[in-house]
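Design a sequence for this backbone.
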């Protein structure tokens, strides 16, 4: 112990070599010379470290499982004849959907990307159907695949009946007319089955003419006292020559004279979704032309199978006629606001 003190007590005696560990210990205890310093406390042996790779050292933890995306129907409780939208929103942050696919009523549904990794799809709830089977497949960034089988429940609706008197050539067409009718029906059906894979509409739909509704969608129709058909669109009253506007942006798919619908325009809004404008007296657009919402398509007339001038406005999804009121629904408008405006090079006129 004295030897150790003499290390600091210079000149008081012979300096003996202290072990480096002891020196270190005293340097730590204090530099003031004390008569009885406490016994040095030797530090414990330092822990031994080994460099290891972190991913090898941790026990294997599986990555978080992606949750099935939230599926939302718009409207929540649709009734027959309605155009129904659904939105797939990813629930797990950081695990965005890489791909989504859907089938409804036995056919593939084109899906549009919304912001935030969500997808939008459209399904028709046809007249007389109580539920529509829908299957959704989503693939996440990590390759996980999830399949959901759902059923879209469709509520029943009451529809009115109405009777009309029309010229006999419309209820009993001659063979030449029947041939024309068959060809036109095929042309329209083939057109309405073409699916443009991206949405061409954006924002809320507008009524294409100013008049009041004279005949709703789904009405039972007795023509010359026989039940002949269901009304597949919405009739809007108007005078001959009143303007008819595109209810949203899209591409003119058909613009021509047809036997039953008269002078007609069909507009493709993308995703298999079309609007139609019948019985026009005049058309202002040509097939293939891009139209903006509110652009003049033609003028109200009384061509085709009609009793007087009016606009018949039709909405179709995959060639199934749905109620035009469904695209005027505020919830559908809010959803349509989430679509990005389609980038279309406007043709020079
Ligand atoms: Zn009509």
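Sequence:
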């Amino acid at each position: 112990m004295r030897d150790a003190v003499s290390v600091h007590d210079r000149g008081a005696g012979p300096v003996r070599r202290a072990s480096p560990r002891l020196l270190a210990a005293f340097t730590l205890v204090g530099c003031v010379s004390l008569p009885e310093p406490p016994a040095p406390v030797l530090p414990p042996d330092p822990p031994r470290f080994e460099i290891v790779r972190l991913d090898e050292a941790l026990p294997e933890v599986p990555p978080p499982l992606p949750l099935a995306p939230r599926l939302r129907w718009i409207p929540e409780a649709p009734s027959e004849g309605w155009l129904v939208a659904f939105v797939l929103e990813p629930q797990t942050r950081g695990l965005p959907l890489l791909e989504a696919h859907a089938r409804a009523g036995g056919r593939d549904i084109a899906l549009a990307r919304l912001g935030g990794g969500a997808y939008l799809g459209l399904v028709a709830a046809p007249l007389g159907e109580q539920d529509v089977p829908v299957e959704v497949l989503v693939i996440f960034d990590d390759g996980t695949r999830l399949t959901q089988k759902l059923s879209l429940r469709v509520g029943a609706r009451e529809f009115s009946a109405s009777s009309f008197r029309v010229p006999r050539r419309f209820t009993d067409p001659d063979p030449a007319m029947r041939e024309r009718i068959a060809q036109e029906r095929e042309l329209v059906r083939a057109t309405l089955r073409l699916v443009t894979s991206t949405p061409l509409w954006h924002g809320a739909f507008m009524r294409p003419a100013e008049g009041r509704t004279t005949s709703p969608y789904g009405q039972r129709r007795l023509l010359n006292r026989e039940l002949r058909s269901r009304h597949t669109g919405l009739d809007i009253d108007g005078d001959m020559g009143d303007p008819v506007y595109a209810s949203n942006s899209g591409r003119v798919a058909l613009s021509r004279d047809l036997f039953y619908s008269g002078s007609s325009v069909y507009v493709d809004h993308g995703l298999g979704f079309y609007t139609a404008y019948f019985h026009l007296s005049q058309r202002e657009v040509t097939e293939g032309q891009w139209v903006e919402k509110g652009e003049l398509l033609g003028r109200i007339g009384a061509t085709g199978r009609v009793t007087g001038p009016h606009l018949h406005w039709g909405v179709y999804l995959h060639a199934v006629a749905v109620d035009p009121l469904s695209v005027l629904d505020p919830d559908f408008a809010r959803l349509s606001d989430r679509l990005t405006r389609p980038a279309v090079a406007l043709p020079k006129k």
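Residues 1-33 have pLDDT under 50 and may be disordered.
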